[in-house]
């Protein structure tokens, strides 16, 4: 699954560590999600969507 | 620089891990060559065990630098360390009480429990980590590695069993399952790395 996490993060001038702290996950998790190595669970996807104030489908895209 | 910190923590972890392995081999060599005598001479094994403390601290620094540290992982490291010490101490006490003594079977069974308690501690620490880890990605990585370890243990155990049945390989005591599983866990973590998971 593709995602726009890196772009959204860059728009806010957040580092991976900043985003990880806001999501209460490890920096490695943010990196794995951003690079498409790991697809988050639905609860974590909702947390990400809430943080950016966007619907899930505006962040995560089908391949 | 974070990269320097990560590299230095990695070097420190490798250093202490190598020192621990060499220390254990050294203690084994002293016993094997009868330079020290069991059972109490075996207490020399406790010395390299102390090297696990700086090793765990260095690996925690490495986890922090790599962005994979978590409170659950820190608790796991401490529990595993305590369980490892409990295992070695239990093992030494059991051997010391068993060697050169005519012990009854019920007493021998009780002595067998002494090192086993440490092993139970390790299994409990692993189970608690999977339950307590709130970071789902780190949890998935651990569960993947544990599945690889379990698969390898079952496959190796079955193959070795038949090698024993057909007289090709010597009998291996059943307590070898935990160290074998731990090796499998390391391989599982390598598999995670190779798969980019």
Automatic annotation (TrEMBL), chain A:
SMART domains the record matches: HTH_XRE (SM00530)
SUPFAM superfamilies membership: lambda repressor-like DNA-binding domains
GO molecular function, one term: DNA binding
This protein's UniProt keywords: DNA-binding
Residue ranges annotated for the HTH cro/C1-type domain, each copy included: 5-59
PROSITE patterns according to UniProt: HTH_CROC1
InterPro entries named among the record's database cross-references: Cro/C1-type_HTH, Lambda_DNA-bd_dom_sf
Protein name according to UniProt: Transcriptional regulator
